[in-house]
Amino acid sequence: MRELAQVDPLARALPALFSPTPTAAKRTLEFFTANIRNPNTRKAYARAVAEFAAWCANNRLEDLAEIEPVHVAAYVEQLQQRLAAPSVKLHLAALRVLFDWLVVGQIIRTNPASSVRGPKHSVRKGKTPVLTAEEARALLDAIDLSTPAGLRDRALIGLMVYTFARVGAAIAMRVGDVYVQGRRTWVRLHEKGGKQHEMPCHHNLDDYLHAYIDGAQLAGDDEGFLFRSSVGRTGTLSERPISQADVYRMIGRRGAAADVRTKIGCHSFRATGITEYLRNGGKLEVAQQMANHESARTTGLYDRRGDGVSLDEVERIVI
């Protein structure tokens, strides 16, 4: 185990349950480093596995071979008392795939989580807060454009609204990912799984991006990050990419300045863009392609056109 820890410091953080031998520790470490490529999935699964290992330690389950389906089922029952169904299903999914990985690696003989059922959960409408077209327009118009940071914020929010881009794909963009093709500005988004997704720009987004690139003097630096972090409160930009946490805080500030009372986040602009596209006659299957979703059902979760209908019906109750 000492040799493994010297090779990779991450091995030192492995729960004792999953590192009883150097072979088991190496196999577990490979699961999180070689098998899972998405950093957000890696973090979520690591938290789930760590919580399960802590639960096992509290219940004196110290050997992987001792864990049976009844133990996993008992753990899931306890999770349901404090977590929502989607979170419980994520925890169970993490255990299933990890135990599968250990079975294939001949660390354990069977997967104790494979036969355990999670809670039922069916979603027809997403929970992401959505802005109206008027609120989104007011937020964009309220941004102070006198600094490169202001131009950046408008371009970044505009990108998420008009291309349905995920924030992770947006902040990974380089300057060269904004390019002209057929006399039209296009953007190249770096999506999950290493996929590239190309989209033509709405005329507003075209203006926002070129105003930002010119104002921040980024033209020609094709390999540099497009959306860069601010230097303190100066409004000038560094060469480092803006982080997702900084984007979230920026959105909060911009929303407050525009008197937007909806509690919005990074995903709100993706949902807002999809909803407004469909509200104005767009097709769900085209929205799916624009959002780079594998399934139209996923795109449908962002369709919040029914919210307005529900409000109108509620107002019919005249008392």
Structure commentary:
- With 319 residues, this protein is mainly alpha-helical.
- The chain folds into 2 domains: 2-104, DNA polymerase, domain 1 (Orthogonal Bundle); 133-312, Orthogonal Bundle (hpI Integrase, Chain A).
- 52% of the residues lie in helices and 8% in strands.
- The chain has helices at 2-7, 22-35, 39-58, 69-80, 85-104, 133-141, 148-163, 167-171, 203-215, 244-257, 266-279, 284-291, 296-300, 305-314, and strands at 178-181, 184-190, 196-200, 228-230, 237-241.
- The chain has a 3-stranded antiparallel beta sheet.
- Strand 4 and strand 5 form a beta hairpin.
- Helix 3 (39-58) crosses helix 5 and helix 4 (69-80) packs antiparallel against helix 5 (85-104).
- It is globular.
Tally of DSSP helical segments: 14
| CATH topology title of the largest domain | hpI Integrase, Chain A
* CATH class division of the largest domain: Mainly Alpha
CATH superfamily of the largest domain: Intergrase catalytic core
What is the CA-atom radius of gyration, in angstroms? 24 Å
Order of helices and strands: HHHHHHHHEEEHEEHHHHH
Mean pLDDT: 86
Proportion of helical residues? 40-55%
The total count of strands amounts to 5
Question: What is the CATH architecture assignment of the largest domain?
Answer: Orthogonal Bundle
> What's the number of domains?
2
N→C terminal distance = 72 Å
Q: What is the molecular shape?
A: globular
